[in-house]
UniProtKB/TrEMBL annotation:
Official protein name in the record: Linear amide C-N hydrolase
Gene3D superfamilies found in the cross-reference section: Penicillin V Acylase, Chain A
Protein keywords: Hydrolase, Membrane, Transmembrane, Transmembrane helix
Source species: [Clostridium] leptum DSM 753
One Pfam family in the UniProt entry: CBAH
Keyword Transmembrane helix annotated: yes
Protein family membership: Belongs to the peptidase C59 family.
Plastid keyword on record: no
Gene Ontology MF: a single term: penicillin amidase activity
Amino acid sequence: MKMIREELIMLDNRKLMAEEWNAGCSALSWSTQDGKHLWGRNFDFNRLAQGTKVSYIPSGTEYYTCGATMERNLDRSSRCRAAYAALGTGFLMIPSVPVLYEGINERGLMGGQLYYREFAHFADKAIPGTLKIQPPYVVYHVLAQCATVAEAADLLKNKVTIMNLPLFGSVPTLHWAFSDRTGEMIVVEPDRDGLKVYRNTIGVMTNSPGYSWHRLNLLNYAGIRDLDYDVLDLESDRLNQCFSGSGAQGLPGDWSSPSRFIRLAFLKKYCVKGRDESQGVANMLHLFQSAAFPLGIVRITEQGTVTEYDKDISPYDYTVYTSIMCGESLRFYWTTYQNQQIQCVDMNHLKKGMKAVQFDLEQPPNLHLLSCPEK
């Protein structure tokens, strides 16, 4: 009876994880003045699945890209071995494959998955000569096998077929972004007319519609700039500016995917890059805060499947965490909604071991109380 109960608990958790892959989110690539390359994302949802942690998976890990041992449908022809170690947010609770929402590998390739509601379309039949892969496994597989965005684009276009196969009853609607030490960010979208790989993008990604729509939509905001507008002359009247920020008038301020895309695109264009990695991460967090969901502003109508093992379920979508990684230092940074202190894991230290390692993502608020200096 104990084994049956444990299997039911694990199955409930997997169903919740499948729903979590349908979260919102925003992603961004940026750089620093001294040539470091950063990629990061906001994770917007109403919970985190049990077992979600910052996870390190060593090179040489054996895994499968189709099926799962827990569902007794593992496709053993999809067996792979990781060429590179990877570090990111995800879980290691499916024995046949690690799952990452986003991450970085030891060659500096970074990327992740975002929700692509109503637009994602996956293949019912595999292209001959390609490896079958289910959508939730894409991030880890790319990081495990590719060193650059060029290799990632080639793998996704020519070497795999992303299949319309459910995992624990759900086919998550996803699209992806990857970036590397060159600074290029690619956007990968599974549309009805085939898989699109956009090269040399502006380095911003949110949710539906697709990247090409978001890119064209920027023309509606072509007048936005970082410089305040000057005196306004109206017939015989003359109005002097009495507030700052008029150059950005018309910049949308809501939390929809199109509005977040516009805000991040113009913030990336005009905001000051950090001098070095630490300042770059701090500055980039401010950009993400402009697109973050405050708890209470995005109320949801359906919470999805909630089991007795779930906790801290919110009736609102909010920015559960923000992660940023650096392609040169191989460091993974994050903050959570409750704890804005920047936490960091360095892959260079983890590579000295041969086992998977996990770190708690959620931490209680860290309030630093200063005392009066002694005279």
